[in-house]
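pasting for ref
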Amino acid sequence: MSFQPITERQLSAVKRRAKQMSRDDKSRTYMQHLDVICQEQLGISRFQDASKKAVRGEPTTPLSFYLQACQEAYFEI
């Protein structure tokens, strides 16, 4: 199975669905609904983990790729 990056659009869809479900089903909190929906749609048990793995604004030019790689390497040091 190949890794599919999580996009901001997917996270927004999870948030919208959790918000609707929390209005309809008061037995769980909004955060609990987020976790359940993340598990169902993204295969990740916690929304917080999915949010950390999300791709934020994909680079569009080779220079952007290079700068993003440098920034990621800098923060790993």
